[in-house]
Amino acid sequence: MTLPPARIVVEDLSKSYRIAAPARPPGAGRRLGFSLGFSRGFSLALPFAPRRRRVIEALRDVSFTIAPHTITGLIGPNGAGKSTLIKILSGILRPSAGHVRIGGLIPWADRIRHVGRIGVVFGQRSQLWWDLPVDGGFALLRDIYRVPPDAYRVRRARLVETLRLEGILDQPVRQLSLGQRMRAELAAALLHAPPLLILDEPTIGLDAPSKLAVRAFIHDLNRQEGTTVLLTTHDMHDIEALARRVIVIGHGRVLADSPFETLRATTLSGRRLVASFDGTVPPIALPDGVTRLSDGEGVLELDFDPARVPAADLVRLLDAAGGRLADISIVRPSIEDVISRFYERHGAAE
Ligand SMILES: Nc1ncnc2c1ncn2[C@@H]1O[C@H](COP(=O)(O)OP(=O)(O)OP(=O)(O)O)[C@@H](O)[C@H]1O
Q: Has the ipTM of the complex gone over 0.95?
């Protein structure tokens, strides 16, 4: 089973939802003439009164291209439009406007061929059958995707081994722990060896060792099989561990599309330095580009821009200041801090 590599091309994609607006407050219909007032405080809405609708623009003019064999992170605050985009790319939803081609197919129009070429894992939903043993679900997926018996045997054995599924194959899915279920879901999505894996919050709710195991598996899958991975997550450690490129969505638009390090450099490039002294902090004249955050109890905390003041120069300055320097640590802002600042700057958070 060799399927074509998955290049994703998205052009000017928009999706709006029409939803029923909240019910009109009592009396409002009467003013518009769509209900009859019989007496004070009582009104009857007529059936021909038009239903009020509200339009939510979940995606607006979204464009990007993803090369085969890469891992791309798709991030954005709650309600940004990520799930809507994932559903369109999976062929579940039709956009209101724009174009998508994945490996040359239009996901919603060529749906049957398309789903045979992608694997999808939704962290919050199961694609396996709740009451069936894990292996029974795998066999059903083999039939649905028409995986040839020999290819299935090899593939299943490999996934069972790498995802450590041996001990849970005969257990019904509903009995599995979240970590076990997620490993089984990954195997289920990959039995037909798709060239594209779409992951929607694959580590949600997992404990630390399970998160590490899922990340390692995705990393190896991409390296060893060249599987293209599109990863949506709110866990920035998933992004840090896996994705060289991030697409940030906010209010339905692409706000950034770059390597994470570029996002960091343009959003929160500073470093934090904490120096501890035995005794008091000596007087130090700080150069431009360095801000004193706190200074007391023998601890000096600085914020500095490494492009203007290299860390090594700062350390030399502190060492030569005349105090008894005991310890120094320099940290970069966490990925959560960088992303939160980015959302804040773009007014993207809900
Ligand atoms: N079926 C639907 N009908 C109406 N509105 C919807 C529907 N699905 C999503 N929306 C709206 O579209 C917008 C984008 O939602 P979407 O679920 O795509 O965001 P998201 O980025 O995945 O959010 P989260 O991170 O919270 O899962 C939101 O305003 C949401 O309320």
A: yes
Atom of ligand 1 nearest to the CA of 83: 22
- Averaged pLDDT of the chain: 88
Task: Give residue-wise pLDDT tens across range 189-219.
Answer: 999 999 999 999 999 988 998 899 999 999 9
Which residue type sits at 135?
A: D
Q: Which CATH number fits domain 65-265: 3.40.50.2000, 3.40.50.300, 1.10.357.140, 3.40.50.970?
A: 3.40.50.300
Give 68-90 pLDDT, tens digit per residue.
Answer: 999 999 999 999 999 999 999 99
The residue whose CA has the least distance to atom 29 of ligand 1 is: 79
Ligand 1 atom 26 nearest Cα: 78
- Give me the long-range contacts of 239-244 (CB less than 8 A, separation at least 24): 239/73, 239/75, 239/335, 240/335, 241/215, 242/71, 242/73, 242/215, 242/218, 243/71, 243/72, 243/73, 244/70, 244/71
User: What pLDDT shows up at residue 49?
Assistant: 58
Q: What is the DSSP string of 251-270?
A: TTEEEEEEEHHHHHHHH---
Q: Which atom of ligand 1 is nearest to the CA of 249?
A: 21
Q: For the chain, what are the domain ranges? A: 15-55, 65-265, 269-332
User: Ligand 1, from 56, 125, 234, 249: best to mutate by most atoms within 8 Å of Cβ?
Assistant: 56
Q: Provide CB contacts within 8 A for 222, sequence distance 6+.
A: 69, 70, 71, 228, 229, 242
Q: Indicate the top mutation candidate among 82, 232, 255, 350 to test ligand 1's pocket, ranked by most ligand atoms within 8 A of CB.
A: 82
Q: pLDDT tens-digit profile of 20-70? A: 876 665 555 444 444 444 444 444 555 555 667 889 999 999 999 999 999
Write out residues with Cβ below 6 Å of ligand 1.
17, 19, 56, 58, 76, 78-84
CATH architecture of the region 269-332: 2-Layer Sandwich (3.30)
Task: Look at the pTM and tell me if it is higher than 0.80.
Answer: yes
